[in-house]
Design a protein that fits this description.
Strand 8 and strand 9 form a beta hairpin. This protein is α/β, with parallel strands linked by helices. It is 34% helix and 22% strand. The protein has eight helices and nine strands. The protein starts with a strand and ends in a 9-residue tail after the last helix. The strands form two sheets. It has a six-stranded mixed β-sheet, sandwiched between helices. A three-stranded antiparallel β-sheet has the order 2-1-4, covered by helices on one side. Helix 3 crosses helix 4 and helix 4 packs parallel to helix 5. It has a single domain, classed as Rossmann fold (3-Layer(aba) Sandwich), CATH 3.40.50.300. It is globular and about 55 Å long. The structure holds adenosine-5'-diphosphate and magnesium ion. The site of magnesium ion has 3 residues, from helix 1.
Length: 240
Amino acid sequence: MMFPIRLEQVAFRPDGRRVLDNLDLTLSGEGISIVLGPNGVGKTVLLKMIAGLQAVTEGRLLWGDNGHPVERIAMVFQQPMILRSTVLDNAALGLRPLGLSRRACEARAREMLERVGLNHRAGHSARLLSGGEKQRLALARAWAVQPRLLLLDEPTANLDPSAVEAVETIVRGIRTDGAKVLMTTHNLGQATRLADDIVFLADGRVQEHAPARQFFARPESPAARHFIQAELPWRIRFDE
Ligand SMILES: Nc1ncnc2c1ncn2[C@@H]1O[C@H](COP(=O)(O)OP(=O)(O)O)[C@@H](O)[C@H]1O
Ligand SMILES: [Mg+2]
């Protein structure tokens, strides 16, 4: 079991600049956790550390009981990585390394394309897909490997509302299939729709980690109240 994931006193100081500092966070293996916080606060760095794409040089990142990530992790970025090949090949990308036969890979990839509504495009060039379709393809590729942990870095930035809704439905499906989801977003509506819990980063550390409902109804820190007020398209006052 690789949960809980624990970050203890994690710091990230590129060129002496204090980005993350004394960051403590514990993540359970259930539900959808959404990381919120101002631009440049270190949300992407945090996800990359958990994905193993950014070394933890200060502090500790611990996985469950034995200290190592022993189950599958998948990550999808804001700009989906798309190979110059067919939609089907792209969906199958993570499967060959798992030792499946070519036929089994194709069958599974087709099943995933069906789930994300792209099966009719299987033979088309993936480069020609729209932004929303590319993101659904990236999610199909991640879903195909049946990850225990899915990391999503602003997966719906720059997508129109119907594409956003499609991505949210897929994310819920992956969660229901047994993945823990850790994602970032700038879309507070999305955070209220998807999140079980909110991790609010500001000033280099976790300022609040609370159930989503509680976070949005009664944010504890002034930084969180200010962040929510600034991000919402309407005015809101919190009882002090
Ligand atoms: N590999 C790196 N080397 C140096 N600085 C980095 C590196 N990765 C991120 N940063 C810096 O860390 C800060 C946080 O970045 P990021 O995690 O992308 O913020 P955000 O919360 O917007 O996702 C930024 O100032 C960024 O320039
Ligand atoms: Mg980012």
